[in-house]
Amino acid sequence: MRTQPKQSGLSDRAAARPASIRRELYRELCQDEDGNRYTVIVYRPVPDLNVTRYELEDGTPVRFVDDCLFEMESTGRTLTRCEL
């Protein structure tokens, strides 16, 4: 009896497709209470979906608080964009 190699069940085209293509919308210059400056990147992780994500240039996730504030999720540090 001949054995056949197992196949993943995914076509080559589906396996080679990237998991997500994020679309950068804009960047916000911000600073913390100590005066350290940061750049918050605002993007859509899935282009056709109306979901917005926020992160710093180094990939640190931030949370949108209001029109003037973001919060770094890992530390709770507040970043403002209204008082630069």
Give a brief outline of the structure.
By secondary structure, the protein is mostly beta strands. The chain has one helix at 12-16, and strands at residues 23-31, 37-44, 53-56, 62-64, 69-72, 78-80.
> Biggest sheet, strands in spatial order?
1-2-3
Question: Helix fraction?
Answer: under 10%
Proportion of residues in β-strands: 35-45%
- pLDDT under 50 segments (min length 5)? 11-17
Radius of gyration: 20 Å
Largest sheet: 3 strands, antiparallel
Average of the residue pLDDT scores: 82
Characterise the protein shown here:
This protein is mainly β and 84 residues long. Helix content is 6%, strand content 37%. The protein is built from 1 helix and 6 strands; from the N terminus they run H-E-E-E-E-E-E. It has one helix at 12-16; strands at residues 23-31, 37-44, 53-56, 62-64, 69-72, 78-80. It has a 3-stranded antiparallel sheet, with no helix packed on it. Strand 2 and strand 3 (53-56) form a beta hairpin. The protein is elongated and about 70 Å long. The model is unreliable at 11-17 (pLDDT under 50).
Question: Which key phrases capture this entry?
Answer:
84 residues; mainly beta; three-stranded antiparallel beta sheet; 6% helix; elongated
